[in-house]
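::Encoded backbone::
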Amino acid sequence: MLFWTAAIIFFGTYLLIASEKVNKTTAALMGASLMLIFVLEGPGHLPASFKDYTQGQQYQKADGAPTISHTIEKGLIARNEKYEKLDIYSRYVNFDVIFTLAGMMILVNILSKTGLFQFVAIKCAKISHGSPMRMMLLLVAATAILSAFLDNVTTVLLVAPITLVVASELEVPALPYLMAETISSNIGGTATLIGDPPNLIIGSVAKLDFMAFIWNMTPVVIIIMILYMTFLYIHYHKHLQVTVEKRAKIMELNEMAAITDMDNLKRGGLVMIFTIIGFLIHGALDLQPSIVATTGATAALMVCKVDTDHAFEKVEWSTLFFFIGLFVLVSGADHANLTKTLGSVFNFTHDWNPLLTVLFVMWVSGISAAIINNVSFTAAMVSIVATYIADVPAFAGSVQNQHLMWWGLALAVCLGGNGTIVGAAANLVVAGIAEKSGIKITFRRFLNYSIPITMGSMGVASIYIIIRYFALCRV
């Protein structure tokens, strides 16, 4: 009964999110509430998996000799007692992800008030000397770089409005620019732990730090971006042409006028630099990403002359509570063994070569992320993959194969988010900004732009996985 109750709540919530008939945050919180009422256990109860583990331990052999040390036994008991005292949300929500996102949102909001990101957009336009094609390539590159170190939703919120202004000045259609930037934000966000929310979820579950993402994800993202920008040039360079007079309008724009608060730009920029350094070394210091992000946000609030209440008002609370709802929803599915049952779908791959298994999981995940939404899908998929890794000897006994699976999944869900307009939050944000400007981006219209890029980038990612982990590391 518990299994079917969890299944109805889980799939019902996901269908509601995918249908867009109800706000996604409202749907996620409703599903979480139902899981907490009907499926999950409150304080004073241990999860079944932990009970099975602790009760199944044989602390002594037949001859009376201990099988595990007294210290480990005491640690298990202490962990048991501590867990029983946790409140309901502390048990089931990954607050490392929540506080990492919240900290970066605060820091970025403070910097956004200085005009930094508008400065970058105008500077790109001027460096291009008013050439629509060069401007597109520079804006796309800037969006990808910013998305690697900021949340991709935040990046498009900052860059898209400026793009509309510049496109208006040049009198060129804004849609190709907006679409190019949207896709670029999702590709660029794939490069780092903090660039795209699915990476945060995967990194937290798989215990992969910022530098691990840099070494393993950034190279393929650079390759994909080079190919993507080449594609854009070939496709648009004959269509995006303007007169000399229109180019002159762009060159008259003053990028320095976009800087509205130079003092806070210097202070906040310095904090951002130290925060990024913190992400680079947090693994060596044994610090969680959330500690780095919240420390950076706190430092920015202290050194920058901003209204703290106003800074917190600008946090995307809807996004944070969406994640909270998803974590509880997935915890309920895991508690009822639903994720384990779903993971059994991959049982027929147990005897496959690990490479074939990873490629299969990649393409299934990429397509699913495009249809469902990559954040929603990743929140559920990480539990399925973790169970699969633990059950299959080829992965359980090989850290390299485990990492191969996690990197494949990260590439798939981030790049798959470009597949449809609902695939990633950045897509929906840009569509909303465009609609306010009279540009309608329909589901079908988005597909015309996204499908070739998504399929191509997934193909490149698959080739990268093969070369990076087999041709080079298994010689």
